[in-house]
Amino acid sequence: MPELKDWIAGFKIDKPELNDFVVKLEGFISDTGFNTSKFENAVAIGLQRKEEEVIKTFREDVEN
Amino acid sequence: MLKIKKITVENFRGLRLPVSIDFVKGSKTTSALIYGRNGTGKSSMVDAWEWLHKFYIENLSREGVLLTDLPHKASGGINSYISVDFQHTSINNATATFNSKKITTPTTTGEYNEFRALSSYPNYLRYTDLNDFICNKRKAARYEYIAKYFGLEKFSLLQDTLQTSLNKQLSNLQKLQKDFEASSNAINSITGLTTVDEATVVKFINTIASKHKISAITTFKQAENVKAALQKIIQENPVAKELTEWKAFQLRQNQFYLITTAKVNCTALEELFTDLKQNEESVKQLILSSLYEQSIEVISKLEDKSKCPVCDEAFDGDLLQHVTAKHNSLAALNKKKTEFDAKKSLVEKQFEVILRKIAAIEAESSAVVLLAFQSFFDDLKTIASTLPTLNATLKKQLKDLATLSISNDEAIAKIDTIISKEVASKTLVADKIAALSKDEKTKNLAQDYTNLSNIIDNFKSHSINKEKVTYLKNITDNLQTFFNSLTSYIQTEIQNTFTVISADVVDYFNVLENSNPDIKNPALKLITGKDKAVELEIEFASEKITPAFKFLSESQVNSFGLAFFLAAVKRFNKDFKFFILDDVVNSFDSFKRPRVAKLIATKFSDFQVLMITHDQIFFDTVQRKFPEWQRYKFTSWDYSTGPKFKPSKNYLEEIQAHIDEDNPITAGQTLGKYLEWTFGILCQNMETPIPYRVENIYTLSDYYNPLAKRFRDKIKLPNKQHKLFELLDDFETGTIFRNYCVHWKNEATQFTSEEIEAIFKKWVEIEEIIFCTSCKSFAHYKNISNTNYVRCDCGAANLLEEKYYSPKK
């Protein structure tokens, strides 16, 4: 029977440029599918972090 | 080859005490047949089998059944297991026991992993699965069915959930891009340029700074310094200060309006509520509405419309008319309830929008604005404190609400007041701004401050959104590539695998649908450009038709679904030849049901089968066809013990047992039923003309005499005596047989056990000639190119063979 993990391993070989992304994505994949809510939380945290990084660059001189 | 010896299930779903299904008869492994009415716990066996493989039960999970609900309630999760004993060189047993400490992973013992390595593909088919394939309007449902039996269930599940996430993130990305564009446009409208970057923004800020003798800046980081300096200048000019405050409020005011009235929707909602509340008892019945709807669809296709397909009880009257009337009586109420739910959701959303708008405008801090709009802000405060309570009321179930009175609430009236004052409020702000803008210098100062403030805010928003868009776009692009590749893999696998099994699918389909030569060669066609769509194709009168539904009846699509399942099982279960069919014949017309048995007999003789049915006739058909199978009857069920079940004899065993027990009446009646059924089959097979009786009452002689004549006519050869003729002569000898043929249903007519046994034994001898034990079929007559054939389906029992003839004495 085709195994999901084998297909993912093959995908990484076919698209080495996406290796880092797929490694992260694997954390959300299980036998019952894709953990949508966990993934969405992770993306929301990533977006929040980006916002905080940009806001930090606005504040530096004001604080000085 | 891995063979099942026994399946034992205890404390699982509806099964409380251990239920053991034996797959050994004598010293040989065999198949098993379970018969039981609905609700006797049969399907818990299939549930346990699925759980043994996947540790969850898909259709139950979809319905919201938790893993903790799988053990029998009275067991408290203790000793809840399925255990399978095998005949194999190295695999003796595989057991999965519910683990209450880790419900997602049962404790597995025996040679579980070795067993799973051999039983990796799904090998069970329920009525509901087949029904999904046939009746589900979504093409994706058929795709999922196919993916499952090709061992691609995990792939398909990943594809499904991945698509949900991808769509959600693409929608988020779209929203961020929109915000990014809005901030870019706002900056462009302030600068009058078309490019947005830090240098442009800094240059614009420096223009303002220079006008007011404020030090120039080199980076955006310093923009707040210019704003602070300009604010200081404004503080020294009260008119300019007030003007900037009014301008800032004007911006918020424009974002606050348009507000729509809530009163109309609230009043309509209350009217619907009152209406439904008056019919509360009927509302409780609405849960049955979809069941009635499905029943109407199913009953109209049933041959026997006198028995309820849901509870299996006989119904005295027109069942379809009865269910339709029940459904119609609920239809109007159902419409009203749907309307009520939609309106409720609309009002809830309206309240949420209003609350969000209030939160934004309430951030106003200007003392002059707050003073001028005191009643406006007071009204907002009342609304903001009341709407959450009203929303909590709306979220309650209809049954939990005694009354619904929101349209007359003060907050709803205040929303209307605010709406009615929109024009006046806006005019007041515009007038204030106009009055304060009379002095050109002050006006310019205020405008510079507003521009500066807006360009800083928008550039911040622009920079944040730009980063977010880049971040999210990278994720969605990669996710899309991953998803596309996965989809392409699944589709290719489905197409390739189908190509491999297509010959078997066609073969099995033809066995099930042999009555229609114009419909043949079923195939699968993937719809290009769609991620999860597959269409059925059929050859109808030499023309390929897609979708096949154009010409196939539901029963024929059913045959397609079953043929597909069996072909997949045959292809993928080479080391473990076993499958379960749970009530699948339910979807077939009654005349097609024996063909399912025939298909198993002819194409799956090397497989072990667990056949589950609630259809008594099919149970009889299978037990006649497969006398060597183990048979069980689930007779009843109760909570404390689970199903009551007993091994069941086949007809021949049952007759012999009654004879052995010297119970001639029951033996005679059982034999009579058996002969009636068998003569019927044989008359059909031999194309035997039977005299028509208007009263529709036939004796065994009415079938037997024309049948025996037909056999004699079709297999006679000049100067030769057929062995069957001798047996038929012997069978007919004596008055006992003739009496029996006419009076077997009459208990008053006394036959001895010896007399019944004599008839029975003679018939068994006849069956040994006319019934093929390989393909499980009786001989039938066929004339091909003017040549007569009297043989079974596989040809092994050929009555025209030389060996049956001897010279006539």
From TrEMBL, chain A:
Designated name of the protein: Uncharacterized protein
Originating species: Runella salmonicolor
TrEMBL record, chain B:
Position of the signal peptide: none
InterPro entries, per the entry: P-loop_NTPase
PANTHER family from the UniProt entry: DNA REPLICATION AND REPAIR PROTEIN RECF
Protein name: AAA family ATPase
Organism: Runella salmonicolor
